[in-house]
Amino acid sequence: MSQPYSFRDHQNVALVMLPVGPAHEGERPMMSSNFLTLDGISKRYGVLNALESISLDVARGEFLTLLGPSGSGKSTLLAVLAGFTEPDRGCVSLNGDDITRLPPEARRFGVVPQGYGLFPHLTAYENIAFPLRVRRTLRTRIDNRVQEVMELLQIEGLGDRLPMHLSGGQQQRVALARALSFEPDLLLLDEPMSALDASLRRDLQAELVRLHRQVGTTFIHVTHDQQEALALSDRIVVLNQGRAEQIGSPRAIYDRPASRFVASFLGKNNLLDTIARVGADGRLQFHWHGHRIAARPGAGRLTPGPCVLVVRPEAILLDPVRGGASHSDERVRGKVVSRTFLGASTDIIVAIGDDILMVTLPAAAPPIVPGEDVWLTLDSERLWCLPGGAPPCELSSVSSELAA
Ligand SMILES: Nc1ncnc2c1ncn2[C@@H]1O[C@H](COP(=O)(O)OP(=O)(O)O)[C@@H](O)[C@H]1O
Ligand SMILES: [Mg+2]
């Protein structure tokens, strides 16, 4: 049986991805479109669609992140870009030239493979110099360039060390230095933080942003960590089962998810099945447990019928019923299931009928305890509406009800 593909399998190939043209010297170009284009990229492994018709334009100088759960096709897409994997269908072009079938070594792309792929028997210096040696760069130029990238990555004193004598964070810096040593047109990074602990990961995230600004090269970065994707990227491609579910800025993806999958993958969103109906004032309202919430223009797909309301846990207000707050159309009663102290905030789980909602309150929230009855108010300004998944018969009964 074939093993799942991994960049690890190609560590050594990654090291000989050499520039064929003149080295990229001097001024860094500004962001512009039509730098890298993917058009209908598909890849199957047996019956499995690892990639399904991925189309994407990447601007020069962009920091793009491929985000998705394990097995969603992130590494396969990176391998197609690097030239390690040939797609079954579709085309990759760089500056207008079709490079779909160009071998890896003929692309000017640097790669930081998952696990870094450093040569264990070479010193940090020799690892970094390797891509330059293979392209027969002059010895003095190699020395200058290695010193330059070591300075850039702040690893000047580590040149003589073997990878086994470097910490995880230092190995990552050496791998980045090696991938950048030949001034690639594009840097491909496969889960570069996954081997690091949480605090080191935060440091290196900041480092990666600084590096991107400083060198100006286009970065395509793979992660399964939504926080990391939001923090680092100009744009994010959310992958699910080989499909690009949404492509957009971190803000757009967070605030305006295009699908149920994106809404649940980014953050702790509550997804509520509701019905949207036209109210007496002619405006659309969401009906949920006898509660009516006015729809705000621009809050997603606003048409009558079944819909999924995406409600951020921080967009819900809670009032204890014991506090005397009375029932109104705009509140719904629920029961507190649990309360979790998280330092800067508190997470509260509330049950309303069959629905379970996550509510995030500031640390100074009123002392609401498990078992207590509460009124919930959804902040209508912060709701987002997706098409509902109800069967068509329900849709038609709702439309006939509305037509009546
Ligand atoms: N060489 C291969 N042979 C068979 N299946 C593969 C191969 N490479 C990847 N796959 C499958 O394709 C899917 C996507 O894999 P991958 O791109 O590695 O996902 P990710 O990097 O998002 O975790 C997975 O189901 C994986 O098992
Ligand atoms: Mg992967």
By DSSP (H or I, 4+ residues per run), the number of helices equals 10
Low-confidence stretches: 1-32, 390-404
The name of the CATH topology of the largest domain is Rossmann fold
Most strands sheet: 6 strands, mixed
Which sequence of SSEs, written as H and E, runs from N to C?
HEEEHEEEHHHEHEHEEHHEEEEEEEEEEH
Looking at CATH, the homologous superfamily of the largest domain is P-loop containing nucleotide triphosphate hydrolases
Shape: elongated
Estimate nothing, just give the exact number of structural domains.
2
Give the amount of beta strand, in percent.
25-35%
How would you explain this protein's 3D organization?
This protein has 404 residues and is of the alpha+beta class. It has 2 domains: 7-260, P-loop containing nucleotide triphosphate hydrolases (Rossmann fold, 3-Layer(aba) Sandwich), CATH 3.40.50.300; 268-403, OB fold (Dihydrolipoamide Acetyltransferase, E2P) (Beta Barrel). It contains 10 helices and 20 strands. The protein has helices at residues 11-15, 74-82, 124-134, 139-152, 168-180, 198-215, 226-232, 250-255, 260-265, 392-403, and strands at residues 36-45, 48-58, 63-67, 89-94, 97-98, 109-112, 186-190, 218-223, 235-240, 243-248, 270-278, 284-288, 291-294, 305-311, 316-320, 332-341, 345-352, 355-362, 373-378, 383-387. A 6-stranded mixed beta sheet has the order 6-7-8-3-9-10, sandwiched between helices. A 5-stranded antiparallel beta sheet has the order 13-12-11-14-20. Strand 4 and strand 5 (97-98) form a beta hairpin. The longest helix is centred in the middle third of the chain and has 18 residues, at 198-215. The radius of gyration is 26 Å and the shape is elongated. The chain starts with 10 loop residues before the first helix and ends with a helix. Bound molecules: adenosine-5'-diphosphate and magnesium ion (MG).
